[in-house]
Amino acid sequence: MKEKKDKRIRTSTAKMILAGAVLSVFLFTFMYTRAVGKRQQNIEAQATADVFKTMNLKDYEGNTVTSELFSHSKITVVNVWETTCTACIAEFPEMEVVTQEIDPEEVQIIGICADLIDKNGDISPELTAEAKEILDMSGATFLQLYPDEKTRDFIRANVSGFPTNFFVDSAGAIIDYRAGSRNRDGWHEMINEFLEKVE
Q1: How many structural domains compose the chain?
Q2: Among the three residues 31, 50, 69, which one is the final residue of a domain in this structure?
Q3: What residues make up the domain containing 120?
Q4: CB 74 within 8 A of CB 170
Q5: Helix (H, G, I), strand (E, B) or coil at 143
Q6: Shortest CA distance to 73 belongs to which of 139, 142, 147?
Q7: Fewer CB near the terminus (10 Å): N or C of the chain?
Q8: What is the per-residue pLDDT across 155-165, written as a single tens digit (0 to 9) for each?
């Protein structure tokens, strides 16, 4: 009887130790995953805060464009698009009309075509030619910038669909963003919403 009782106690103790070990592993994994997640959020938040404040990109003519650009208007709309995005391309004529109707001291629109840069950080001549053709055919004349690796990483971390428009203040800080394409009236409505926020 005593032997059976001791065996039961040992079995029970072993189960308790095993359960404790499993719980410890679970808690460690949970805390580690949480810490990594918070670290990633902090990295992305920092990227969000700095990507346009420290901007130093090239336009399609090879001119350097820095964050000083944002000081020219109360709000700059950074239109992020791709050459494969039909909705992006379809709204370019509407956007061009809007750029002719807005006061540039109030609002300016610039574009960044996200898929021009590859995983190695190189600009694709083929996709650049395609992007230029798209812009020419749609009549879009507003400023277009090449993404660099920092901009590419920011887009990957913060953009889930195209087009996405980031609203940036005169200091280069992101106010907010809006996803999806719009017609002329929709663009004016969206722009007025953000002008009210900075006035």
Answers
A1: 2
A2: 50
A3: 56-198
A4: yes
A5: coil
A6: 142
A7: N
A8: 999 999 999 99
Q: What pLDDT was estimated at residue 119?
A: 83
Please tell me whether residues 34 and 61 are part of one structural domain.
no
Integer-rounded Cα radius of gyration of the chain: 26
Among residues 159, 172, 165, 151, which one has the least CA distance to residue 47? 151
DSSP code string of 21-46: HHHHHHHHHHHHHHHHHHHHHHHHHH
Using one digit for the tens of pLDDT, what is the confidence trace for 65-85?
Answer: 999 999 999 999 999 999 999
CA gap 52, 49 in Å, rounded? 8
The answer on 36 and 118 residing in a single domain is no
Q: What is the arithmetic mean of pLDDT over 143-154?
A: 96
Pairing of strands 107-113, 144-145: parallel
Residues 100 and 138 both lie in one domain: yes
Better pLDDT: 50 or 9:
50
CA dist 92 and 83 (Å) reads 12
Question: 188 and 141 in one domain?
Answer: yes
Residues in contact with 141: Cβ distance below 8 Å, sequence separation at least 6, in sequence order: 96, 99, 135
Q: 31 and 119 in one domain?
A: no
pLDDT, the chain, mean: 84
The continuous run of DSSP H or E covering 80 comes out as strand 75-81
Residue 22 reports pLDDT greater than 50: no
Task: Please give the structure tokens belonging to residue 72.
Answer: 């020219």
